[in-house]
Each structure stands twice: as structure tokens, then as C-alpha cells.
From TrEMBL:
GO terms for molecular function: metal ion binding. This is Iron(III) transport system substrate-binding protein. InterPro entries: Ferric-bd, SBP. Belongs to the bacterial solute-binding protein 1 family. PANTHER family: IRON-UTILIZATION PERIPLASMIC PROTEIN (PTHR30006:SF15), THIAMINE-BINDING PERIPLASMIC PROTEIN-RELATED (PTHR30006). Residues 1-21 form the signal peptide. Fe cation binds at Y214, Y215. It comes from Aquamicrobium aerolatum DSM 21857. Pfam families: SBP_bac_1 (PF01547). The keyword GTP-binding does not apply.
Length: 328
């Protein structure tokens, strides 16, 4: 038996590298239902085996910081730019050409990570219980008495936390704390994520929710009479934050060449077309057929607050603030 095992080892060592199956460890803060088909197609197209760990983006960002140089991860695929910025020091530098092909609004100029899709924060609302006169002009209006007990939010969600970080950047920590405490005092209802907020509106539990733009389309695709719609706040409002999902290569990885293949794949026409048509997100490279259900990107740029994605990297400060006000 020992001779047999020794022979197997010797055979493996003598095989050309190309003959050995490539594998990749991906930490994904993107939901499995959305990205598993992309990863499966990547495996089919490249022959590379992907081992994926799914969890919340902020949870995985914290895990990567704890693991440091011992992390088994090769790639971190996050759902928001804030988390990517927070752990950018743990990423290997990407070649400049990776981001050069990306639309300027999404580009990471420091080449520590690559955007994979764009998304906007929106206000979702009941089409059955919300009148035009009930629509808030600003996200800060939601602390008013007329919205008491009517608004859903998801404080543990990574995209919401990136929004809070952007709020802090735009208006200061004191203003962000005042808004959070105002929402709590106004009996904002806590939900696990974006989808559960939308379902709560449809079920009559609440009338409004704060979510990313791409979730509602999944419900409407199954039921064109689904009783929820979405809108933006007034132009420039922080509630209209334009953010990205993105991916970086973990510097501690011994598998960086294979990891780069995955990054390149996410920016390919195949993946970008899937992300926008099936995922209802904005493509980040030119030449992709747009999703007709999405607000035109030019309009989105007009109404979005002027926040540099690289400025929303203080995730720890946001988590500390959320703990201080009792939301974590």
C-alpha cells in the first residue's frame, strides 16, 4: 500500500501543471441564488473548480481581517464598495488594464479591486396603501410622525451599512446618528435583508422599505401585479446612493493567476449580460445590452449624490455607530 501511495504522489508531481485541475476559493457576499449560475458557467467555460463560501458581505470582510495571511480565500466578491474599500489593504494590486475597461463612474482608481455591477439605493412602497402625497422628498423625512411604524429597514445588511457610511461621509457622524435614532424612535421595522422588506410591504406589514434597486424586479418578473413599486428621492439625496458590487484578489493567496481569470470573467460580456438581464443590476463595462426595466444610467447619475466609492470604506466606524444606537 505504501508503495502504491508513493507511486501516486510521484505521478502527481511529475504531471505538467496544466494537467492538474485548477481550483479557486471564493468568499461571496453576493447571494447564492443570483451568482451561483455565473460561477457554474465560469467552471464550465474554464475548467476551473470554484469552492464558494456564501455569507453576508460584512461578515466575510470581518472574517478576512481575522484570518489575515492565513486566509484560504483567493477572491472576495462583495456586494458593496464600502466593504471592498475597508479590506483593500488585504488585496493584491490588479493590473491597471482591468479597471481601464470599466465605466469611469464605477472604476477603482487604486486598482485594488474591480467593480462587477452597479446598483442604486431606492425607496420601495405599497401601490395599494401609499398615496402621492405620502411620498417623502428625502430619506431624512422618514423620521417624521406620518411614517411612524410604516418603514422597513435592514441594519445588518451590507448595502445598508455602506449607505450609512456614505451618510456619515456626506453629512457627518452626528447627523447620521441623529437620523438612525430618529428612525428607531419612529418605530422603523427591522428585517433581515432587502427581499424580506419587499415581502413585508406586499403582506401589509409596512408601507415603505429601503433596498437596492435590483430586488423588486425579481418579484415583478413572477407577478406583474405585485403590489410594490420603487422610486428615488429628490436629486442628490443620500438615499439615492450609487454603489457597486466588486471583487478583489486576496494578497495572501497562492493562486493569484487563477483568481485573476475569475475577475476577468466577471467583466466579460457573458457575465455582464447575465448580471443586468437576470440580476437587474447595471453593467460596468460598455457594449452590454441594457435592462429595459432599469432607470437609464444617465438619469441615475443625475440624481445620485456625489460620493466617491473609495470614501465609503470606514465599515468599522459604521458598525460601531450601529452598535452604539442599538441596531447591532
Amino acid at each position: 500500500m505504501k508503495k502504491f501511495l508513493a507511486g501516486c504522489v510521484a505521478l502527481a508531481l511529475s504531471m505538467p501543471a496544466a494537467a492538474l485541475a485548477e481550483e479557486l476559493v471564493i468568499y461571496s457576499g453576493r447571494g447564492e441564488s443570483l451568482v451561483a449560475p455565473i460561477i457554474a458557467q465560469f467552471e464550465a467555460d474554464t475548467g476551473i473548480k470554484a469552492n464558494v463560501r456564501y455569507a453576508g458581505t460584512s461578515e466575510l470582510a470581518t472574517l478576512l481581517q481575522e484570518e489575515g495571511g492565513q486566509s484560504p480565500a483567493d477572491v472576495f466578491w462583495a456586494q458593496d464598495g464600502g466593504s471592498l474599500g475597508a479590506i483593500a489593504p488585504l488585496f493584491a494590486d490588479l493590473p491597471a488594464e482591468v479597471n481601464e475597461g470599466v465605466a469611469p463612474a464605477f472604476r477603482n482608481v487604486n486598482n485594488k479591486w474591480a467593480p462587477t455591477s452597479g446598483r442604486s439605493r431606492t425607496l420601495v412602497y405599497s401601490t395599494e396603501r401609499v398615496a402621492d402625497a405620502d411620498m417623502p422628498a428625502s430619506i431624512t423625512d422618514l423620521t417624521n410622525e406620518k411614517y411612524k411604524g410604516r418603514v422597513a429597514w435592514a441594519p445588518t445588511n451590507g448595502s445598508f451599512q455602506a449607505f450609512v457610511t456614505a451618510f456619515r461621509v456626506a453629512h457627518g457622524d452626528d447627523a447620521a446618528k441623529t437620523w438612525l435614532e430618529g428612525m428607531i424612535a419612529n418605530d422603523a421595522k427591522v428585517y433581515r435583508n432587502n427581499g424580506t422588506q419587499i415581502e413585508a410591504i406586499a403582506n401589509g406589514e409596512v408601507d415603505f422599505g429601503l433596498v437596492n434597486n435590483y430586488y423588486l424586479g425579481r418579484y415583478i418578473a413572477r407577478d406583474d401585479k405585485f403590489p410594490v413599486a420603487q422610486t428615488h428621492f429628490q436629486a442628490g439625496d443620500i438615499g439615492n446612493l450609487l454603489n457597486v458590487a466588486g471583487a478583489g484578489i486576496v494578497a495572501a493567496s497562492d493562486n493569484q493567476e487563477t483568481a485573476r481569470k475569475f475577475i476577468d470573467y466577471l467583466l466579460s460580456t457573458t457575465a455582464q449580460q447575465y448580471i443586468t438581464l437576470q440580476g437587474n443590476e447595471y453593467p460596468v463595462v460598455p457594449g452590454i445590452i441594457g435592462n429595459a426595466t432599469l432607470e437609464p444610467f444617465a438619469k441615475l447619475q443625475e440624481i445620485s449624490p456625489k460620493i466617491d466609492i473609495d470614501q465609503i470604506s470606514d465599515l468599522e466606524g459604521t458598525l460601531a455607530l450601529l452598535r452604539e444606537v442599538g441596531l447591532l
